[in-house]
Amino acid sequence: MSPTPPEPEPGRSARPARPARPARAAALRVEGLHVTVGHGRTEAVRDVSFDILPGEAVGLVGESGSGKTLTCRSVLGLPSPGVAVSAGRIALGGTANDSPGSADTDLVALTDRQWQQVRGTRIGAVFQDPGSYLNPALTVGRQLGEPLRRRGLTRAQARRRAVELFEAVGLHDPERVHDSYPHELSGGMLQRVLIAVAISGDPQLLVADEATTALDTVVQAEVLDLLGVLRDRHGLALLLVSHDLAVVAEVCDRVLVLYAGEVVEEGPTAEVVAAPAHPYTEALLRVAALGRRDRRELAVIPGRPPEPGTAGSGCRFAPRCEYATTACTEQAVPLTPVPRTGRRAARCLRSAELPLTGVRERTDVTQRTEVPV
Ligand SMILES: Nc1ncnc2c1ncn2[C@@H]1O[C@H](COP(=O)(O)OP(=O)(O)OP(=O)(O)O)[C@@H](O)[C@H]1O
Questions:
Q1: Closest CA to 317 of 309, 325, 305
Q2: What is the share, in percent, of the chain residues with pLDDT greater than 90?
Q3: Ligand 1 atom index nearest CA of 241
Q4: Contact predicate 101/107, CB 8 Å
Q5: Which residues form the ABC transporter domain (predicted)?
Q6: Under DSSP, is residue 161 helix (H, G, I), strand (E, B) or coil?
Q7: Within 13 Å of residue 32, how many CA atoms lie on the same side as its CB?
Q8: Relative to the CA of 210, which ligand 1 atom is closest?
Q9: Given the CA of residue 83, which atom of ligand 1 is nearest to it?
């Protein structure tokens, strides 16, 4: 976390008031990440920092275009053409050796070849639209078995391990699933297959980018439960990206709310959802499927976020903010600790005085069902 400390009072020391870093080694540490698009011409992600501890789930939430995918693809070393990390550091905790992705390695500096070693072993990933990541001409068991065989397992061992993994992600009749082609499985089953592939290298970090967005609400709830179970059972660190705060609230211990490429609020999810400190978070809560459906006031937040490079000098949300004053548009607003909270920060001049509304009840409109794992 990197909230900008407030100005010290006259006569007091300038000790930064940033929230303390957790004592345990982070599974992932992102520090001061800046990402440019258009071959370096435009900054689309600015100064994003966060840690994820082993066994912890952190959510990145924001509307389309807020910078979630640029951030998570940077963590995965998968930038699109013309996109680059222009500043910052990304490090994985855990192993203290000089292998790619060890605690001391800045992942930003890795070569493509080194990234290939890190992805699949240290970091697993699942995305939206699982069908497009699987070869329609091969059984899903073979597609999971091939990376296992590359790691030295015999054909029989790879089959046994694949069946175990399919069982671990809650697929019924895993032997039959093993011998099925992608078109023979439902969207939810395919997403479980991809989760099995993602965890097959025993990674410390699982990145899920809109992994449940294409699924119907019941299956979405089941897959979210599965991610939570994997985190709890295997101590996986989870980075969950979603446009829907309800999805993040289901699984994540902490949340970062992104707007126009900047973190505008961060903190423990339950606290942020119950009492948002930024008007954008409040607006996201109104459109999320959180709480009772009849409390949803808006289908979308009015207005549009600025395109990268077009925001004015003040708060980037000010043009859409019902609480904005002239002061909000005059100067950049730093991310500052939220008073009387432990690990929360917000980028709003007025957060201490605004009567922002949160969602206190955890009434779940996605009809959670137990996952058979
Ligand atoms: N390859 C690219 N070239 C130019 N601009 C890009 C590129 N990728 C992303 N952008 C711009 O950067 C901003 C952030 O994009 P990003 O994909 O990270 O948003 P997002 O929050 O993940 O949204 P979505 O949910 O729609 O994927 C957007 O304005 C987008 O148009």
A1: 305
A2: 56
A3: 22
A4: yes
A5: 28-285
A6: helix
A7: 6
A8: 25
A9: 1
| Under 8 Å between Cβ of 246 and 284 | no
CB atoms within 10 A of CB 362: 12
Please state, in angstroms and rounded to a whole number, the distance separating the CA atoms of residues 136 and 214.
19
Cα(207) to centroid of ligand 1, in Å? 17
Least confident of 68-72, 104-108, 283-287, 338-342: 104-108
The whole-angstrom separation of Cα 302 and Cα 33 is 29
Determine contact, residues 130/120, Cβ cutoff 8 Å.
no
291 has pLDDT over 70: no
CA–CA dist 67, 219 (Å, integer): 26
Q: What is the pLDDT, as a whole number, of residue 213?
A: 82
Pocket perturbation via mutation, ligand 1, pick of 42, 43, 48, 66 by most ligand atoms within 8 A of CB: 66
pLDDT at 53 over 90: yes
Domain boundaries, the chain: 134-201
Q: Is the pLDDT of residue 95 over 80?
A: no
pLDDT in tens, 193-226: 999 999 998 899 999 998 888 788 888 888 898 9
User: For residue 143, how many other CB atoms are within 10 A of its CB?
Assistant: 19
Distance CA 362, CA 249 (A): 9
pLDDT of residue 11: 33
- 314 closest CA partner among 350, 364, 353: 350
Nearest CA to ligand 1 atom 18: 67
Cβ 73 under 6 angstroms from ligand 1: no
Cα distance between residue 136 and residue 330, in whole Å: 54
State how far the Cα of 258 lies from the Cα of 281, in Å rounded to an integer.
Answer: 9
Q: How confident is the model at residue 372 (pLDDT cuts 50, 70, 90)?
A: very low
The one-letter amino acid at 219: V
CB neighbours of 351 closer than 8 A, spacing ≥ 6? Answer: 277, 278, 338
Q: Is 242 in the pocket of ligand 1 (CB under 6 A)?
A: no
Query: Tokens 């978070």 sit at which residue?
Result: 281
